[in-house]
């Protein structure tokens, strides 16, 4: 999401938006992002996402609510569409190289801290998404149809990785959604700092994927016309 903020700031200079509209857009993005980050960070430090800390499923809510609220806004907003038209398509793809740090889940599995049923698909999917982020961005920058197709498939793969990780995580974590009780280690990602990944990084990355797909779709339509 840091890339989203910088992209909005730079891309807005090249749109038809007035200076007042650019400042308003920048302010909305900055305030929303800062409040979201502060809330997730504070809740994580205070242990609000720990199993049994609340009768409410706060961690699933932290993952899903930003996506449910943010996706319609980012996908339907005319002003966001104008910013995407002015923004280099690589800006929403290359920064997700940080997904290689999902290798921590694989390391935890090797140490016997996390169940392999979750750690293997979640960790491997993150690593693959991160490893291919820069090559896909380079191919997209070449302006070829193949590069755009590759970017679309990369986004879909990244979203599928999250879908599997979230579904398995909810099904295996103690709580109202648990369907699977793993043999061996239980899910142990509800404490600080690891919990910041599902509580903040995951929904941020999902929104980046959504923005990238919208941008690619808009440019395909423009070129077709």
Protein described:
This protein has 225 residues and is mostly helical. 69% of the residues lie in helices and 0% in strands. It contains eight helices and no strands. The chain has helices spanning 2-11, 19-45, 58-76, 78-86, 103-110, 116-141, 145-172, 196-224. The longest helix has 29 residues, at 196-224. The radius of gyration is 19 Å and the shape is globular. Mean pLDDT is 87; it is low at 1-13.
List keywords for this structure.
single chain, 225 residues, mainly alpha, 8 helices, globular, disordered N terminus
Order of helices and strands: HHHHHHHH
Distance, first to last CA: 31 Å
Extract low-pLDDT stretches.
1-13
Rg over alpha carbons: 19 Å
The percent range for helix content is 55-70%
How many individual β-strands?
A: 0
User: For the report, how would you describe the main beta sheet?
Assistant: none
Strand fraction: under 5%
Mean pLDDT: 87
Q: Structural class, from helix and strand content? A: mainly alpha
């Amino acid at each position: 999401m840091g890339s989203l903020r910088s992209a909005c700031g730079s891309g807005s200079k090249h749109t038809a938006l007035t200076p007042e509209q650019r400042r308003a857009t920048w302010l909305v993005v900055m305030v929303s992002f800062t409040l979201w980050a502060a809330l997730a960070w504070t809740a994580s430090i205070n242990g609000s996402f720990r199993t049994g800390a609340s009768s409410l499923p706060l961690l699933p809510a932290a993952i899903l609510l930003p996506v449910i609220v943010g996706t319609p806004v980012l996908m339907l907003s005319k002003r966001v569409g104008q910013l995407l038209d002015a923004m280099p398509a690589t800006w929403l793809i290359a920064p997700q190289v940080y997904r290689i740090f999902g290798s921590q889940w694989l390391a935890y599995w090797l140490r016997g801290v996390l169940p392999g049923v979750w750690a293997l698909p979640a960790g491997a999917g993150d690593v693959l998404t991160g490893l291919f982020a820069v090559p896909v961005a380079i191919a997209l920058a070449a302006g070829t149809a193949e590069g755009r197709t590759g970017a679309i498939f990369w986004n879909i793969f990244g979203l599928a990785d999250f879908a599997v990780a979230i579904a398995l995580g909810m099904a295996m974590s103690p709580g109202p959604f648990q369907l699977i009780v793993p043999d061996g280690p239980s899910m142990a990602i509800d404490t600080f700092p690891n919990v910041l990944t599902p509580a903040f990084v995951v929904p941020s990355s999902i929104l980046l994927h959504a923005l990238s797909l919208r941008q690619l779709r808009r440019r395909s339509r423009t070129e077709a016309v």
